[in-house]
Fold:
Amino acid sequence: MAEPFRIGITRDFIRPNGELGFGGAGVRLLEETPGIEVSFLPEHGKELTPEDIAGFDALGVLGPRVTPATLKGNDRLALVARFGVGYDNIDVPACTENGVFLTITPEAVQRPMAVVNLTFILALAGRLLEQDRLTREGRWADKQDARGTGLVGKTLGTVGFGRIAQETHRISRPLGMRHIAHDPYALPTVAEAEGVELVDLDDLVRESDFLVVAAAYTPETRHIINADRIAMMKPTAYLISTARGGLVDQKALYEALRERRIAGAGMDVFEQEPVDPDDPILKLENVVVTPHGLCWTDECERIMGESVLRSIQAVAAGETPEHVVNRDAIDSPKIAEKLRRYREGAKQA
Structure:
């Protein structure tokens, strides 16, 4: 009888009260699938250790880091399935070197993250939180002081033009805005088909009324929105940061918001997470903040779980999964040997 395909789920899926968080995010779906054995990793820190992952064929990872040290000496693990689209917590070259696929779930976050961006656009344009505070404080007569901004004719710009940025432009189209983007890897034909003009980064920053930061986080894109670029923004413009906190120089953003050099910001991500409750940016009234979780909807959780399950089932059957980040690992002899072993095991089952 073939040994079961063992999956280790990082423990940050479990809430402090012991319940499964994030709506289960597909973990229950994994647990109900025949032929695989699911368990949660023991208590772990921010970086997984070799002891944490020993004995598993696949990992379902949320927040902890997977580093070269994590994978050292492990010749069983074949898959790191990241719940989400970002993978800055996973060392991609180390996965490839050790014969481990890294997969993500882009289809799960494309629409929910675009909705997050649209939510911030609407909340900031309508000065929703200010209107809410006025109402709760009985300051009905002061509502003229929180007059909103119309969207028709305004410019929506995205730093990045990947799946999420494209979907953000797509679902915002009925609002009557102009659409621009900057992405050195974007295909002009795709942008043209979506009705989006590709522009230089500095021009994007200068012309956007709503600047959405939707780029991948890499060493090259760290602080892509820095003090100099924030200084280029219109005083009436809003910055929306929902990808990774490190893309924006948060101290520079704070100063611009405090001095009212830009109109406001929407932030679902921060340079330090969890954000310090005493961080001065949280004291400002012209910023809307959420805890890197606005995208977590029942829709996102369901699609994410289904995507991770497909990746796991493919590897367990000895096949290459979808949405592989480290594509060069596909030709790895280490990967080939692991997939061969799983195929033989599947025949014996």
Residues 61 and 82 are 5 Å apart (CA to CA). The chain has two domains: 5-104+297-348, 109-289. The longest strand covers residues 5-9. DSSP finds 13 helices and twelve strands in the chain.
